[in-house]
Amino acid sequence: MSGFGEYTRPPPPPGPLEYGGVKLVNDADHPFIAPGPGDIRGPCPALNTLANHGYISRNGIESPSNIVHAAMEGFNMNNDLAKFTCYAAFVVNGNLVTDLVSIGEKSAKTGPDPLDQPATIGGLNTHNVFEGDSSMTRADFYDGGDVETFNETLFQGFLEYSYRFGGGRYNLTAAGEYRYKRTQDGIETNPTFTIVAPRLFSAYSESVNPINLWVDGRQDDGQLRLDHARSFFEAARFPDDFHRAARPMSADNEAVVLSIHPIEPGANIAGVNTYTVDRNAPKLNDKCGIFEYHVNHTLRTLYPNPTGDLLDAIRANIHYFYTSVQARGCSEIFPYGRFEDGESNAYYAFPDYPEVELPEYGTFPYPPVEPLTYTDAPAPASAPAPVSTNVAPPAASATVPVTSTD
């Protein structure tokens, strides 16, 4: 529902686009308009861009099904990835009864909080339920609590690593090195640093989405221009004449980024440099495990005993979340019980999606590339070499040091 009247079950997310190819998205129907007083923006530059161009509500309050459609229409994000990302965030940050979420700070515009539940309906700014540490261009929550403001110092690191490892473009090689650096920054400076599901997924998705979604579809080479990177990260604005990706894009090339410097999920447990691997947390390639962990651990912590309309909305949204991993062969789980249609379970029928028209050209995923010979500007000073992850834990802690398999 889009208002606060009588409850109706939230609608399912849309299926794939009927046309999944290159398309002008910075068009006359979607002009850039900077946010005005009262408009909300948050830690995700992609969502901020969609709001600034009117693909989602410009006030920053939107329903998950509309966000899924906007991510596909504006960026050509793969349908399953759009659903996985959106519903993973929505079920822990949004108002499940009103079917609304703030893309940034908590807002009364999403409706009243649930009674007698720990959930705060805090919007996407809420730390450590989806938003998390080691962002590429936003500070950690530990460093003052501001997780939504563009950080020029971090962006300069992004540029430095793009020059050093990408030859003046941001690509998978640069992504692997910079993700590793930001993880090490967290381990060494943030005593509360953690990177387990769902942040493990969103951190690596954040690393590859600029390559997959912000490279103009007519270019289609996995090499992000740095002026375009600044336009998205800082201004939340499509570059002039920007065309979306050449085909629906997944984030499966996150495995390439992880392989450059492998790391297992974990956290600092006793201050800085005490990173301990969490053996119970799912790894990045285990999307079924991430889905189950997020529902059975994070969501159930926020909603231990829902009833009535809230219970019905939770059941519906868990299913919508599940459809994002159904094609991977994951099992559906029912921690809050099934819908009232019983054993037939007709409500869970897989949607009859239309065929997707895909272009013939291009390949995906892009492999790591050798540093290119061209640059957009004189290269800045070289970044310091990445710090080894062989950190010796304090004697009193049973930590497992992070090791690189390079």
TrEMBL record:
Belongs to the chloroperoxidase family. PANTHER family: HEME HALOPEROXIDASE FAMILY PROFILE DOMAIN-CONTAINING PROTEIN, STERIGMATOCYSTIN BIOSYNTHESIS PEROXIDASE STCC-RELATED. This is Heme haloperoxidase family profile domain-containing protein. It comes from Agaricus bisporus var. burnettii (strain JB137-S8 / ATCC MYA-4627 / FGSC 10392). It comes from the Eukaryota. Residues 377-406 have a biased composition (Low complexity). Residues 28-257 form the Heme haloperoxidase family profile domain. Residues 375-406 are annotated as: Disordered. Keywords: Heme, Iron, Metal-binding, Oxidoreductase, Peroxidase. Coiled coil: none annotated. The keyword S-adenosyl-L-methionine does not apply. The keyword Zinc-finger does not apply. Its cofactor is heme b. GO terms for molecular function: metal ion binding; peroxidase activity.
